[in-house]
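Readers of this paper often ask what the protein records in our data store actually look like. Such a record has a labelled line for the sequence and another for the backbone structure tokens. Nothing more is needed to write down the fold, since each code stands for a local backbone conformation. The remainder of this section carries one protein's record, kept here as part of the documentation.
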Amino acid sequence: MLLFHATAVLAAVALLARGLLHGGIGLIAAFGFVIAATLFAGDLTLRQYAGHSLFPYAAPTGGTLLILSWLAVSVAAVWPGK
């Protein structure tokens, strides 16, 4: 999960640098990947090793943010740049 989304963050940043993604939306999506993957994987890891979660619904929140980040990358790819 983390390796796949780390690659997605690097790809989004590379596409932003080349101007192939809309700047604001692409940047939000890249930050969304980082925050969401951390929430999702962090909550699952903490549940496994410590026996409790970060906060209620942390993993579903992270998963939902991952989906929204992928949608944001899609929108940033088709939205006309400046």
